[in-house]
Amino acid sequence: MGRGGATEAAREVGAAGRRGHAAPGGLSGPAAPRTELLRWQWREVQAPCLVAAWILVASLAKIVFHLSRKVTSIVPESCLLILLGLGLGGIVLAVAKKAEYQLEPNMFFLFLLPPIVLDSGYFMPSRLFFDNIGAILTYAVVGTLWNSFATGTALWGLHRAGLMDPGVEAGLMDFLLFGSLISAVDPVAVLAVFEEVHVNETLFIIVFGESLLNDAVTVVLYKVFNSFVELGPAHIHATDYPLHLFLSSFFLVSLGGTAVGLLFAFLLALITRFTKRVRIIEPLFVFLLAYVAYLAAEMVSLSAILAVTFCGICCKKYVEANISQKSRTTVKYTMKTLASSSETIIFMFLGISAVDTSKWTWDTALVLGTLFFILLFRAVGVVLQTYVLNRFRLIPLDRIDQVVMSYGGLRGAVAFALVILLDREKVKAKDYFVATTIVVVFFTVIVQGLTIKPLVTWLKVKRSDHHKPTLNEELHEHAFDHILAAVEDIVGHHGYHYWRDKWEQFDKKYLSQLLMRKSAYRLRDEIWDVYYKLNIRDAISFVDQGGHVHSAAKLALPSMPSRTSMSESSVTNLLRESGSGACLDLQVIDTVRSRRDKEDAAMHHVLRGSLYKPRRRYKASYSRHFISPDKQERQDKEIFRQNMKRRLETFKSTKHNVCSSKSKARLKEKGRKKASPSQAPALFLALRFGLPRDAVSEEEESDSSETEKEDDEGIVFVARATDEVLQGKTAPGSLDVCPSPCIIPPSPTLAEKELPWKGDQADLAVYVSSETTKIVPVDMQKAWNQSISSLESIASPPGTESGPQHRRFACPVLEEQPQSASQVMPEQSSCFQFPSHVSKSGRSQSDSSPDGPEQQELQPLMATEEQGRMAPSVEPRWLMFNRASHL
Amino acid sequence: MHQCRLILWNIVLVYENINDSTKSLSLCLRLFYRYRDLAPQLVPLDYRGRPAVTLPYGLIASMPELKDNPFRQRIAEVFSERGDGNMTLDDFLDMFSVLSEMAPRDLKAYYAFKIYDFNNDDYICKSDLEKTVNKLTRNELTPEEVSLACDKVIYEADVDNDGKLSLEDFQHMILRAPDFLSTFHIRI
């Protein structure tokens, strides 16, 4: 990068070289005369060993920090690391009597910085980044320029005013140089602190993007001022370095760096296209080429940070599509590991370096002045720029955002490395600057890092919500992009959407064709991709539960209450009006109250018959060293198909047993044969009639053997609920054009609305709770499964259009059935009208004959058909009561 | 210059309630020029008599920029008053004001909903979604893949469990993602 201090750099290298040479020299002496079995070869391994030891210490320290959740939730890790570094540096100082280790600029720029920048570039949310690119560039360029000039000039003014120690020998140029290095927001520090604060994405991307992109400005300013300082104040004339030269140098450095990044991104994408046979080195290419990009940019003194950032941003899409799933995981983890360890070392060494007092010279006025000006000018700059930017932004950055942005302008290791690189011969006040920089870095990282979290909480800054992408969002985002581009075209306005649309078309037509494998190309379709991911995730969670049945139940159960609360909090007026909301709540509560061990067993049975077996195979083979990608793809597909099948089946089963009388008859028979205890058949039938929740709730109540009165309510409640279900089905049925999958899992839809990625999991939960809860014995379970399968064979594979017709048929069939079955029915229908009466007769029936419960369940269905308008009037009270009793 | 004034005056005459900023004057003027540029032989400069001029859909569809856009016909249909894709100047201005930043969220949501609702039955049902997905993926998916994806979409967003998305469902879903509709705008 040629950050000016060429001589200093040379000295560093020289020092390293000397140390390197010292080792063999020391070795050759004693090695000659005697032969030894063991030899102490510390000098040979000294350098790498020290590196390893430092990394080890830092990583162990990280573990220790994270032992206490309380500490890390208050104090950012970067602060702790700096403090640790201070402590270690103190120990080293005390033992060795001199400060040995410090953050060397070369090590920092060549080894520690690239992983962090690459990581941030590669995982940058590119759409968010490019949506806000205007604001980011403004802050990065204008803001940094303003900061450095204002800070430098103000400090110079302070010096001229005689407030500083006379030992500070510095002219305007020195202060401007200092201003340029101290004013740049540091990506490492920003990332370290903001990662723990979780402000909303826009705010984060603006601050973080600024910290990445201001590198070009910093480099240019630093170079320019450094050359001025080296020339000496006497030789500088305004004409020596005219503005246009500065500007062109700036554009060269920034655009050149970007171009290098793009070039290497292109190469990288192209190379990964042909790695089909050598999957194992795919991740290597990613790291290697990105690093070469960094070095190449550094070599020709362009902005290396920009190069790596853009290399990461641009290659990601193609690389991810080309490399295998395993390589993707490897890249991800390796990148994170490298970045995280670099960050750790940087902060620790910052602390250690600070102990080295030989490089310090303290001047209170300079330190305080710098701190004050930095904060002041940052705030002023942000406010002014935001004022301008807000005229062009749809969502303006409000006052609170501005506060966080100005307060989040952290300085870090880049500034420190740059100030160490200064030449003491040329910059007389280097020691003062070093001390000031250290104080500024420590102040921003420790004080601001510590307080930014409470500040964000106190100001109620909008936090980020980590929701997974739903299919809807993806779909609509795409559709909106197209729509907007179309409208811009029609109106003839070449705006943002126009260009993005053009870019996407170009990408689709040429770039993707060139840089992506043919096989990857189709899969890349983003909507499909999201859908695919959702499905895979579902499948994995499904199998995770299946794999460990015991833990699964424990996992599933705690999630229920949260779902309850979520659904309750989010039940909108809309839902309340439609009336189904109440049912949803009830169901969820019931699930919570179900007993664990039985649910375990139930879960087990559901899962044993479940359809995700391929996934298990897949998992097993995952542990093997290497699997061919084809196989994996096939397995993924298989899982997907299974998922599809399962869906279809649940759909079929719930839908068809409502109407097919045949299956019901068989069911009844089975129920008798098995002569299962208590009300199992009832539950059974109830389930099959699509009222699982009410049946279950009734079970609950009778199970818990509460008061008589409650029992009454329970039964009446069934009637109400049936009615409701029917209503739910028929009310919108006037427009019954498309099939309503609503019956499948009557309740989880709300939960799903909240946790859309949980689709199948929620499904599963409901099935477990409703199908098999508690009472249904294993054989019943089997019977149920059998009947379903037989049902499927009977029912023609339902085209989606056949649904409504079937349903329309359902009611007459139901009406006739019970009549032919027994004569108890009329009584019961009358019972229905008088809720208080129902319970006793109903209950006794259910106890005496196995038929009874069935009747109970059937009958309301019929009753509601006949006297449908009865129930709603009763409804609210029961509803409330029921709720109360459950809550 | 004179011509420009004339047009401006015409527009002021025609749109008296122009004071809201979404249809600010200069913007109107620009849009009018654009409108006229699309079909100079059809659109008169003198708009005082509110001539019943419509821009036929064929003209819009034939624009080279729109060649690849899957939604061009649907947009024209939704924003044209008669639903046939032929746009009057009013429709043209409406289209823009709906997508401007000042337009309320609900209005945007309503129009977005309309755009999706291909069969105009006030519900986004599965066939509508299938159309959308097919348009977006350029028919690269098999029918059953599309159908599955649509099922999932409905499943995610269907609050009232009727197997299709009503306007309320749609709004609910959109309001859940705070910066969702904010993308639905055009800045001049």
Automatic annotation (TrEMBL), chain A:
Biological processes annotated in GO: regulation of intracellular pH; sodium ion import across plasma membrane
Region (Disordered): 819-887
Residue ranges occupied by any Cation/H+ exchanger transmembrane domain in the UniProt entry: 55-458
A matching Pfam family: Na_H_Exchanger
Compartments it resides in: Cell membrane; Recycling endosome membrane
Chief location: membrane
Membrane-spanning ranges: 79-96, 108-124, 136-155, 175-194, 203-225, 245-271, 278-296, 331-352, 364-384, 404-422, 434-456
Comp. bias (Polar residues): 819-849
Keywords: Antiport, Cell membrane, Endosome, Ion transport, Membrane, Sodium, Sodium transport, Transmembrane, Transmembrane helix, Transport
GO cellular component: plasma membrane; recycling endosome membrane
Family: Belongs to the monovalent cation:proton antiporter 1 (CPA1) transporter (TC 2.A.36) family.
Name recorded for this polypeptide: Sodium/hydrogen exchanger
Classification lineage: Eukaryota, Metazoa, Chordata, Craniata, Vertebrata
TrEMBL record, chain B:
Keywords: Calcium, Magnesium, Metal-binding, Repeat
Gene3D superfamilies associated with the record: EF-hand (1.10.238.10)
GO MF terms held by the record: calcium ion binding; magnesium ion binding
Lineage: superkingdom: Eukaryota
Domain EF-hand: 104-139, 145-180
Gene Ontology BP terms: calcium ion homeostasis
Coiled coil: none
Protein name: EF-hand domain-containing protein
Annotated source species: Malurus cyaneus samueli
Lineage: Eukaryota, Metazoa, Chordata, Craniata, Vertebrata
